[in-house]
Amino acid sequence: MSKTQGNFKLTVVEGEFTDSQIVVMLGENGTGKTTFIRMLAGLLKPDTVEGTDIEIPEFNVSYKPQKISPKFKNTVRHLLHQKIRDSYMHPQFVSDVMKPLQIEQLMDQEVVNLSGGELQRVAICLCLGKPADIYLIDEPSAYLDSEQRIVASKVIKRFILHAKKTAFIVEHDFIMATYLADKVIVYEGRPSIDCSANAPQSLVSGMNKFLSHLDITFRRDPTNYRPRINKLDSTKDREQKSAGSYYYLDD
């Protein structure tokens, strides 16, 4: 299927996904990641083909948009009570999602007064608190510091696994993306002009493809096992490029 918006066209390649799986979307800015997630959310309709409407199968989705605007004129407690009452009163949800995201400390604050990071944590909580088959999360790391990003990643990963659901996530933080991803969708093409979203593929092959476009290599730090970027044209960088191994996981 495809979607044309102004001068930009996104083509989506057919693929498969399963439950208990997180699919991370990787691509440069302007390649259509948010466009695709909005199509999955039912907010954008695919282009017609020869006059025929293309229907996306109807799923029960929960969507956290990229841009969060705090319009709610009351406290966080009122917001959660109104939007996700059953979840936010459930002990499992409180221990697995609300406590790690430190939502308790924000309960009596006015939503309009929250900082960007506080708002992001509440938005993630709201998204996961809504019963759904598919969770669509656009840039969960925005406005979070490095420690909060790790916590948010663990919360999302554990929730999707235990709830046996599927998540599609747009994430620019490379460490967060590699931690979250079971599969990746790589976006290719000319940004803001003509791009394609490939079928979901394994983390290693997807990262290799994405990094080869950027001409960057990563290795895993032997002390903390986190991905580290190799210095351009260093011995390690040249070795990995000659082997076609842009994303190197071995110790």
Automatic annotation (TrEMBL):
Name of the molecule in the record: ABC transporter E family member 2
Keyword Transmembrane attached: no
UniProt xrefs under InterPro entries: AAA+_ATPase, ABC_transporter-like_ATP-bd, ABC_transporter-like_CS, P-loop_NTPase, RLI1
Coiled coil: none
Keyword Transferase: no
Matches recorded under SMART domains: AAA
Entry keywords, A to Z: ATP-binding, Nucleotide-binding
GO MF annotation: an example: ATP hydrolysis activity
Domain of life: Eukaryota
Pfam family, one: ABC_tran
Species of origin: Zea mays
Residue intervals of the ABC transporter domain: 1-214
